[in-house]
Amino acid sequence: MPPEFEGARRLPRLARFAPISGLPQWLSRQPVYRRVVLGAALCLILALTAYAIFGGNACAVYVNDKMVAVANDEKSAKQALAELTRVKSEQAGCPVVVTEDIAYRGIRVEQEEMLDQEALIKRLDESLTFQASCTSILVDGEARVFLKHREDAEGLLAWLKELYPLEPGESPLFKEKIELVEGNTDLNNIMDLESAKKYVLLGTNKVTEYKVKEGDTLWDIARAARLDMEQIILSNPGLDPDRLSIDQVLYLSKESPLINVVSKRQVTVDEEIPYSVEVQKDDSLLFGEQRIICKGVPGKRTVTYEIVRENGLETSREVLAEELISEPKKEIVAKGSLTMLASRGGSARLSWPCSGRIISPFGMRSGRMHEGADIGAGYGSPVKAAAGGTVTFTGWQGGYGNTVEISHGSGLVTLYAHLSSINVKNGEKVDRGEKIGLVGATGRASGPHLHFEVRIGGKPQNPANYLP
Questions:
Q1: How far apart are CA 42 and CA 158, in angstroms?
Q2: Alpha-carbon dihedral 331, 332, 337, 343, rounded to 10 degrees
Q3: What is the per-residue pLDDT across 22-74, written as a single tens digit (0 to 9) for each?
Q4: Neighbours of 460 (CB within 10 A)
Q5: Left (φ > 0), alpha (ψ -120 to 50) or beta: where does 216 sit?
Q6: Partners of 322 in beta bridges
Q7: Confidence of residue 12 (pLDDT cuts 50, 70, 90)
Q8: Which residue ranges make up each domain of the chain?
Q9: Rounded to 5 degrees, what are φ and ψ at 161?
C-alpha cells in the first residue's frame, strides 16, 4: 500500500476509496448531511487515536486548580475522598463537608508516581479543609466560641450566669453583646463543652501599661497586680528586674474572661456622716499630747445606691437618692505645743505613773547616783504613761529588769523599771494615763516597787520636779 494510504487504515470504509490528499475534494462532492456525519466520525476517530497514542494512564487530583495527588484512576480517588470524609464525620460527631473545589483529570505518569489508597487518603487529609455545622457564640459581633449543638451553647451561657452568687434583687446580664448563630466552621475550631467553659473564663490576655514610681520594685508591682514576676519579665523582653527606672513603662498581661457577667441592684441603707475635727493649740500640754474639749458626734443619713457588680465583684456604687437625718457635730481637740518639759511651778506636768509615794528619791545613795525615784506600790499595780508619746524600748535591761522607755518629743524620755509584765510594744503610740505594764520586782530590786526616771537630752532629771 502506498505511504499516503497508511494513515487511512482506521478511517471509515467510504474514506478508503480516496487518497488522503484527495479527501477534501471527495467530501466536497458528497451531500451536506453525509459531509456532517463523516466529519464528526473523523474527529472522533482522530481523538481516540490521539488518546491511544498520547493519553493518560492515571488520574490527577486537583484542589483549587492545584495538583495534590495522583491515583490509579478517578474511581480510586473518589473512594479515598469518601473514606476520608466518613472518618472526619465520625470524629466530629456530625456530617462534614470539604470547602475546596476538587477536580479529576487524566494524566500519564510512571507507575511509581501513583499513590496507593492509604497514601492517597493521607495526602488528601493534608490538602483539604473540612467544615462541620455548628453553633457559634458571637461576642460583640465576632465569632469566638464554636460548639456542635445549639443546646451546648445555650447551656454554657446559662452556666455562666449561675456561676457567680447573686444578691437579692439582682439579675445577671452579659456585659458584651452575645448572639448565637448557626453555620459552618473548620473542625479544629469546634470545642467540647468543658473546654469552651475554660476558654470563656480565661480566654483572653488583657494587657495594661504601668509606669514605675519611686521606690517600686518588681516584687511590689507583681504583688499589686496579682501576677508572678516571671510573667512580667516574659511580657517585657530585655527587662532588667534589678534596674527599674522612674516612669519606665511595663506591660502587664493577665488572663481576662471572654464573657463578663454583670448585675445591678438598688439598696437603701442608713449611714453615719463622719464629723470633722478642729485642732487647737494648748501650751499646757506636751508636744504630741492631746485633750478632747468637745467630743464629735457623727451625723446620720439614708442613702439609696445603685450597685454594679462584675463577675461577682463590686465595680461601682452610685448615689441615686439621699435624705439627711441629722448633721454631724464637730469635735474640738486641744493638742500640746510645749516642746520642753517645765520643772516644778511650770505650766506642763507629768502625771504620776502609779499610785504610791516616793520611797527612795533621786540623788546619791550608798555612794552611787540613783538616777530616778522609787515609788512604792503593791505587786501587780497598774503602771501608766506619765505623758503621751512613742514607746522606744520594751524588754529586759540588766538591773532594771523588765523596762519600758517612752519618748515624748524634744528630747524628753521617761523610763519605767522592775515591771512584772509589759503591755506595750516598740513603736506603739500611747496616751497620757494609758496602762503600759504592772508593778513588779524584776532585776535588782529588794521588793515590789516602780523605778521611774526622767531624762532630758539624755541627762537624768529629778522626777519629783515634774510631778504634781
A1: 73
A2: -110
A3: 555 655 666 665 666 666 666 666 555 544 444 568 999 999 999 999 999 99
A4: 15
A5: beta
A6: 303
A7: very low
A8: 3-54, 58-128, 133-201, 204-256, 263-334, 358-466
A9: -70, -25
